[in-house]
Automatic annotation (TrEMBL):
<feature type="domain" description="Quinolinate phosphoribosyl transferase N-terminal">
    <location>
        <begin position="22"/>
        <end position="99"/>
    </location>
</feature>
<comment type="function">
    <text>Involved in the catabolism of quinolinic acid (QA).</text>
</comment>
<dbReference type="InterPro" id="IPR002638">
    <property type="entry name" value="Quinolinate_PRibosylTrfase_C"/>
</dbReference>
<feature type="domain" description="Quinolinate phosphoribosyl transferase C-terminal">
    <location>
        <begin position="101"/>
        <end position="269"/>
    </location>
</feature>
<dbReference type="GO" id="GO:0004514">
    <property type="term" value="F:nicotinate-nucleotide diphosphorylase (carboxylating) activity"/>
</dbReference>
<keyword id="KW-0328">Glycosyltransferase</keyword>
<dbReference type="InterPro" id="IPR004393">
    <property type="entry name" value="NadC"/>
</dbReference>
<comment type="pathway">
    <text>Cofactor biosynthesis; NAD(+) biosynthesis; nicotinate D-ribonucleotide from quinolinate: step 1/1.</text>
</comment>
<dbReference type="InterPro" id="IPR036068">
    <property type="entry name" value="Nicotinate_pribotase-like_C"/>
</dbReference>
<dbReference type="Pfam" id="PF01729">
    <property type="entry name" value="QRPTase_C"/>
</dbReference>
<dbReference type="GO" id="GO:0009435">
    <property type="term" value="P:NAD+ biosynthetic process"/>
</dbReference>
<dbReference type="GO" id="GO:0005737">
    <property type="term" value="C:cytoplasm"/>
</dbReference>
<dbReference type="InterPro" id="IPR013785">
    <property type="entry name" value="Aldolase_TIM"/>
</dbReference>
<dbReference type="InterPro" id="IPR022412">
    <property type="entry name" value="Quinolinate_PRibosylTrfase_N"/>
</dbReference>
<dbReference type="Pfam" id="PF02749">
    <property type="entry name" value="QRPTase_N"/>
</dbReference>
<dbReference type="InterPro" id="IPR027277">
    <property type="entry name" value="NadC/ModD"/>
</dbReference>
<protein>
    <recommendedName>
        <fullName>nicotinate-nucleotide diphosphorylase (carboxylating)</fullName>
        <ecNumber>2.4.2.19</ecNumber>
    </recommendedName>
</protein>
Length: 271
């Protein structure tokens, strides 16, 4: 899957061929990837596949999940000039995209780490980039939420509109879905959360609630359904995530890890 992704990414950039290579013969060359801002490394796994496919050498000074600062030389590339300049943008785009997500994710993860709460990503990913972007959140310290609809059964507010009896539905679901698949129910109120607990949910998501509302559900869970996991989600930001971590949930999910990540600054300098 990674190899196919890398091939398609390079093909998009090269098109019918690099016009630069038509003008001058190829010569031996080397280049450095330089950090022009602080960040967290991600993309090494993908760039290594590109190196193998295009037959160039890359020596890394930083690995996935490691932090770097402005001015660090992250990697050194060696190849012929035609190869080096053909792969430049593909190499940098993968490294930039992944590292930018990992950098923001690390900021979230660091805030809630003292509370022992897991940081989760979401399915709010760019089309066709889910595997790549969720890999980047892992590099930043997050745990992947479900990759797709087949991972676990999440009953969202939209699903609840079509379900007349939640307990009956969950009982039927247990007979249909894989034995290892969990059932999560999204709740926007304490009343819906209580219904989800009683119906047999494995996980209850407290969606778009205030920290105090979530805390009320945590107290109810702890007193009555201590085996059920609690997740907080919905418009959670760097400024508010600690308030949710303090109330006793097991995990916090945020789409912001991906869709709010601004690109950091990396560049390739030919020696």
């Amino acid at each position: 899957m990674i190899e196919d992704f890398v091939k398609e990414t390079l093909a998009q950039d090269v098109g019918r061929g690099d016009l630069y290579a038509l003008v001058e013969p190829s010569v031996e060359a080397s280049a450095k990837i330089v950090a022009k801002s602080d960040g967290v490394m991600a993309g090494v796994t993908y760039c290594n596949v590109l190196a193998k496919l295009e037959n160039f050498r890359v020596v890394w000074n930083k690995n996935d999940s490691e932090s770097f600062v402005k001015g660090d030389v992250l990697a050194t590339l060696s190849a012929t000039s035609h190869v080096l300049l053909r792969v430049e943008r593909t190499f940098l785009n993968m490294l930039l995209h992944a590292s930018s997500i990992a950098t923001l994710t690390k900021k979230y993860a660091d805030i809630i780490e003292p509370y022992g709460v897991k940081l989760l990503d979401t399915r709010k990913t760019r089309p066709m980039l889910r595997v790549f972007e969720k890999y980047a959140t892992r590099c930043g310290g997050a745990v992947n939420h479900r990759m797709g609809l087949d991972d676990s059964l999440m009953i969202k507010d939209t699903h609840l509109k079509t379900i007349k009896d939640l307990k009956s539905y969950i009982q039927k679901a247990r007979q249909k879905i894989p034995f290892t698949a969990k059932i999560e129910v999204e709740a926007e109120t304490l009343e819906i959360a209580k219904e989800a607990f009683k119906a047999g949910a494995d996980i209850v998501m407290c969606d778009n609630m205030t920290p105090s509302q979530v805390q009320e559900i945590v107290k109810y869970r702890d007193a009555n359904f201590s085996h059920v996991l609690l997740e907080a989600s919905g418009n959670i930001s760097l400024q508010t995530i600690e308030n949710y971590a303090k109330v006793g949930v097991d995990a916090i999910s945020s789409g912001s890890l991906i869709h709010q990540a601004n690109w950091i600054d990396l560049s390739m300098k030919v020696d």
